[in-house]
Amino acid sequence: MKRLPPDDCGFATAFNVVGGKWKMGILWEIHDRPRRFGELRRLLPGISEKVLTEQLRQMEADGLIARTAYAEAVPRVEYSATEIGLSLNSAIGTMASWGKAHTARMANTLPA
Question: Which CATH architecture has domain 11-106?
Fold first, then answer.
């Protein structure tokens, strides 16, 4: 995904972090507890393994999530939201509320 150059209002930074079809869904699924890769695949029907891997790597690089690898007999990796990710999740919740409140109106104004 092409990233927008930084701007003074912060929108480009926010969009760069949440841009992508699956990032907000991933963040939502890990906001209350860590999840493993397979869990995320099941919780996000339609996402491919390749795309999930890419999105997780981008989100880790942006500091939204933390990846923890456990060196056990059967190695496992968990993904959890960082403090920055949790704060973004609050903003996403506000956007979701706005969307719910205006869904009908927006559906009536958009071309078919």
Answer: Orthogonal Bundle (1.10)
